[in-house]
Design goal:
Yope Regulator, Chain: A; 4 helices
């Protein structure tokens, strides 16, 4: 596992008030996780936070930029945006943006789970096991309770 650079460590310090944030190495950068879900990433010394339809307008209004990568000669924007410039080095200002990113990450996970749920309903029904037979001991106990017949010759 690559060793964290000073920017990653600094970003984790800024995000301490959010809670237990973890950084995991990925694709030459770092993924930031909270509660097991990725809400941010750090690439080439730049922090990006998860957005969605609910939060993207807030990031745009503050002049933030999306993470864009090249694929097959075309630019592909992702749902990760830079935080506002005044929040990049100020944990107090960064915290509400990080919370928005965590919320966006949680909504994305819920949306993904909802899409998988109908597929689970279409799974074939599991056959029930046959009912268990009476234990032999129970039959013997029932037989002992009957009165004995007396034979008369």
């Amino acid at each position: 596992m690559p060793r964290m650079d000073s920017f990653v460590e600094y970003t984790l310090e800024l995000l301490e008030p959010l809670g237990a944030v973890q950084a995991r190495s990925m694709f030459g950068g770092w993924g930031l996780y909270f509660g097991g879900r990725m809400f941010g990433l750090i690439l080439q010394g730049q922090l990006y936070l998860k957005t969605d339809d609910v939060t993207r307008a807030d990031f745009e209004a503050e002049g933030c930029r999306p993470f864009i990568y090249q694929s097959r000669g075309r630019e592909q924007p992702m749902s990760y945006w830079t935080p506002p410039a005044d929040a990049e080095d100020d944990g107090r200002r960064l915290l509400p943006w990080a919370r928005r990113a965590v919320d966006a990450s949680n909504r994305a996970a819920m949306k993904k789970a909802a899409k998988k749920a109908p597929a689970a309903k279409k799974a074939p029904a599991v056959k029930k096991a046959p009912a268990a037979k009476k234990a032999p001991a129970a039959k013997k106990a029932a037989a002992k309770k009957k009165p004995a017949r007396v034979r008369r010759s």
